């Protein structure tokens, strides 16, 4: 089992704030919602949770620092790593003469951050290119408006749990050859909170939470693409005991465009031109993201020739510059010709001295040479 400090990337003298910061960073990085079907990320997330559970609790951290994993392992019986250090271990665990106690758990009364949420947002091609403001609806748990999140009916409050006397845990004494050993477990009456609610809120039934649908506007920056993630701080599930909300992560999916193809910040498309335009040159119309623009091609332009229009691609997501637009011309050969058109083309071939048979023969001679 890995060292808990190593898991969080900390030294043993790390402060509480450093522990919280390290855990939050790892939890956000490896959260299952952000890494669906990723077993490795799930394992790291659980590992970070286990480390934080121990190191964020002063009592557990103290035992861990002294005895390692055995000091916080419920199966270890509180004996630490082996039996060599009886003196120190018994001093902490047993009170042979007075029946001292050993706590295996701690009451969790501190604030707990809410869970993160994921929202999948579909965008049209140009919405992603130029940015857009969209309204979304998110179902999430929120603190109950009626009771303010306390879970108690208006005019009442929480009471100290009579079973655990507000400690959140109950103790069971057990006699051993070494003295009295006291086991501690979470109180099942108050679930470790140390408090109970006799008169529960009619709205939330005492949970302090409601499931609601919240409408919110999201500004999508120009340049996002499929796979982009937009985070909205504290727009996730409500926290417990005054803890902050989790975050909302918006995953972007962009629909394909029938004309434009995107690669990074560049745009690609194919523009058809006629045989005459290719041969004589012409001013052709080229679709762009902003509309139609005119572009002049030279006479003798071949099919497959690529042209570049600078700074007419997708805006950079970071806010500066744009990609380019590349278009390739495709010469469309007429499929149906009149007798007159065919005659003109034959005259054209004779006029230019074009010999189709000789042209093909020369081409295939080159092919043969390439394979010999």
UniProtKB/TrEMBL annotation:
CXXCXGXG motif repeats lie at residues 144-151, 161-168, 187-194, 201-208. Its main location: cytoplasm. InterPro entries: DnaJ, DnaJ_C, DnaJ_domain, DnaJ_domain_CS, HSP40/DnaJ_pept-bd, HSP_DnaJ_Cys-rich_dom, HSP_DnaJ_Cys-rich_dom_sf, J_dom_sf. The keyword Oxidoreductase applies. It is found in: Cytoplasm. Residues 3-68 form the J domain. A zinc finger (CR-type) spans 131-213. Residues 131-213 form the CR-type domain. Keywords: Chaperone, Cytoplasm, DNA replication, Metal-binding, Oxidoreductase, Repeat, Stress response, Zinc, Zinc-finger. Zn(2+) 2 binds at residues 161, 164, 187, 190. Binds 2 Zn(2+) ions per monomer. Zn(2+) 1 binds at residues 144, 147, 201, 204. The J domain is necessary and sufficient to stimulate DnaK ATPase activity. Zinc center 1 plays an important role in the autonomous, DnaK-independent chaperone activity of DnaJ. Zinc center 2 is essential for interaction with DnaK and for DnaJ activity. PANTHER family: CHAPERONE PROTEIN DNAJ (PTHR43096:SF48), DNAJ HOMOLOG 1, MITOCHONDRIAL-RELATED (PTHR43096). Homodimer. Belongs to the DnaJ family. This is Chaperone protein DnaJ. It comes from Tissierella carlieri. The gene is dnaJ.
